[in-house]
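Open question from group meeting: does this chain pack into something compact, or does most of it stay loose? Before anyone orders reagents, we agreed to write out a predicted structure and look at it together. Recording both the input and the output here so the notebook holds the full record.
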Amino acid sequence: MHKKLSNIVLIGMPGSGKSTVGVILAKLTSLDFVDTDVLIQTSHSRSLQDIVDTDGHMALRKIEEDTLLGIDCRNHVIATGGSAAYSHAAMTHLKAAGIIVFLDLDLPTLESRINNFSTRGLAKRPDQSFAELFAERFVLYTKYADVTVKCAGLTQEEVCERIIGKRSQGTASVLLSGT
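Structure tokens returned:
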């Protein structure tokens, strides 16, 4: 029997629009919305940057993994943090009840959107450049994505329309082929 995948899980780099697209997508699909970065910050009463500065980037990744593994919801749009794809366990958990959508945006556009690279609270090595982080994560995003939406040149609403179009095709097997 086919299991209904009721969640839409957004993955991608910081600056790809996961949080903004997620809110719009939730409204358009009448789904609830959750932003896992906000969950982390409210549950720990700290900013992501404070966690990185105080405890290190690996601590943030572990907190993010625990947060993702604790998500048990249906009919939600879930905007994940950019480092969610580092956790195979978390991605497997999210995939069990949702369609994983990679918001794919080119490096120059991402760099133009990220003005606060050093203070944004990214789970990255201290010596790691944004380009290195992009290259490292891109492999993971494509590995876990059921659907990839190339976002360059699209408005946030057009990105949502593409996601809704893929979702309305009906089954995970159709979605697994998606671009």
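Observations to bring back to the group:
The longest strand covers residues 98-104.
The mean pLDDT is 88.
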